[in-house]
User: Which sequence fits this backbone?
């Protein structure tokens, strides 16, 4: 098929607008907007010329995306491999590529699959450069900032975000790549609600780190107010530029499955709901272009301690909840900012293909520990997803016939402290976690003697 050669290297194309999900108002992308200036609704980014992409057939696009992987073009090694579907107006020379995307998808160990109830695949988004999937969204948002600086006369930017830990690590990393005289980086964290590893990341990237009392939802309110009243660039997933990049997760899953998404179930932990929004929008793009024949089922997983979407699906009514301490700290959010987008995507497209399940704090820890003792590397949120798949199957919410891809959203080591608390039985009572002895592990102190170690291990002498 000679015809697609000219599409292999993407050139700027399309016409992007912010589009309000409530009043349908459209606004140009010449400034940073997070909510509709007319009605306050959330914004999507829409390509007014999306339909023109259909000048290439679905087979043509599959070929383009598959062949791009082997071109040796640096910026196409990341999420911008899917340039047309992310920020098609941004020229490749403005794209920031720091090694994000194209994370491995690994077949779950057989014993683990038996424990969960089905064979499944784990996609390791903890192997992104700042060790979480948030890099996908920062690669797009910060590439756009770079484009605005280089081509649109943007002179100074103060990038700011509230975070449960990983957003700030990713924002600080990507912003630190831009010129210091133009770009400042500030993160707001809830005091003592992020792990030491997560705190070290934005500090190491040179960001200004502000700790405030409270939980994530409190920090979010503050940055929302700052974004409304001052000239700052909000880098939370309320910023639709973030969602554009995070859609790449879905494109990769489809590509890694050979573009066959029939009977597919994707499993994700839900916090602020930006991730699940992006995943649903991503598959929708592919579906609209005919690259996949079927939308997948999306299984969202929440902790009993932060479960607004579970309650919404159960009662039909949405109400923010007050969160309680959760080991899935990155998802410990009582009032997910992107909820209205999720509700609309479910109403208009996903329907019964959107399922939510709730797991206990103990189940989250068991999901993580079981996965990791069977050759995998998952964080507490990944453990939450593994546990959620197990529970949804046990409760009959999902049938075991499908194919299952579980997202491990961050790297295990960011959350190693929770593993330690489990091993030492040191959880404060609010978590409600009672560790199982068979899942505990501790170092053993022995004298520096081969004989003593052999005796401890019960080794038999040779011969
Ligand atoms: C941000 C995050 C989540 C939750 O994603 P949302 O978009 O907030 O729903 C889950 N796991 C990890 C590791 C995260 O960093
Ligand atoms: Zn509006």
Assistant:
């Amino acid at each position: 098929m000679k015809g697609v050669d000219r599409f292999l290297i993407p050139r700027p194309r399309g016409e992007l607008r912010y589009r309000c999900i409530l009043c349908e108002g459209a606004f140009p992308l010449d400034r940073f907007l997070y909510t509709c200036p007319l009605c306050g609704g959330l914004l999507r980014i829409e390509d007014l010329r999306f339909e023109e992409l259909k000048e290439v057939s679905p087979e043509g696009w599959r070929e383009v995306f598959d062949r791009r992987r082997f071109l040796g073009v640096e910026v196409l090694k990341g999420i911008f491999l899917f340039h047309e579907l992310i920020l098609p107006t941004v020229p490749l020379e403005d794209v920031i590529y720091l090694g994000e995307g194209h994370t491995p998808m690994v077949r779950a160990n057989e014993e683990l699959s038996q424990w969960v109830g089905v064979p499944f695949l784990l996609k390791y988004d903890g192997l992104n450069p700042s060790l979480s999937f948030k890099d996908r969204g920062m690669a797009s948002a910060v590439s756009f900032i770079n484009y605005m600086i280089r081509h649109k006369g943007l002179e100074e930017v103060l990038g700011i975000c509230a975070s449960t830990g990983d957003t700030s690590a990713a924002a600080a990393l990507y912003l630190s790549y831009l010129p210091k005289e133009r770009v400042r980086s500030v993160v707001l964290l809830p005091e003592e609600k992020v792990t030491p590893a997560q705190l070290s990341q934005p500090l190491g990237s040179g960001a200004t780190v502000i700790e405030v009392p409270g939980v994530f939802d409190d920090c979010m309110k503050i940055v929302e107010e700052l974004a409304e009243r001052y000239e700052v660039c909000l880098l939370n997933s309320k910023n639709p530029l973030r969602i554009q990049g995070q859609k790449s997760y879905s494109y990769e899953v489809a590509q890694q499955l050979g573009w066959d998404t029939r009977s597919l179930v994707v499993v994700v932990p839900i916090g602020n709901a930006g991730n699940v929004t992006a995943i649903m929008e991503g598959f929708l793009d592919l579906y609209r272009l005919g690259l996949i024949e079927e939308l997948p089922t999306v299984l969202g997983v929440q902790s009993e301690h932060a479960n607004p979407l579970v309650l919404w699906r159960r009662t039909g009514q949405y109400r923010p909840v007050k969160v309680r301490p959760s080991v899935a700290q990155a998802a410990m959010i009582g009032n997910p900012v992107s909820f209205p987008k999720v509700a609309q995507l479910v109403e208009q497209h996903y329907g019964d293909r959107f399922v939510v399940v709730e797991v206990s704090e103990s189940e989250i820890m068991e999901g993580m520990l079981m996965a990791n003792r069977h050759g995998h590397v998952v964080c507490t949120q990944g453990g939450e997803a593994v546990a959620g798949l197990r529970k949804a199957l046990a409760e009959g919410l999902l049938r075991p016939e499908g194919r299952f891809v579980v997202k491990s959203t961050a790297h295990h080591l960011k959350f190693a402290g929770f593993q330690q608390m489990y091993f030492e039985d040191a959880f404060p009572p609010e978590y409600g976690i009672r560790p199982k002895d068979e899942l505990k592990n501790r170092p053993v102190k022995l004298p520096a003697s081969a004989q003593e170690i052999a005796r401890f291990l019960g080794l038999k002498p040779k011969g």
User: Anything to note?
Assistant: The pocket of zinc ion (ligand 2) is lined by residues 20, 22-23, 25, 36, 38-39, 41 (CB under 6 Å).
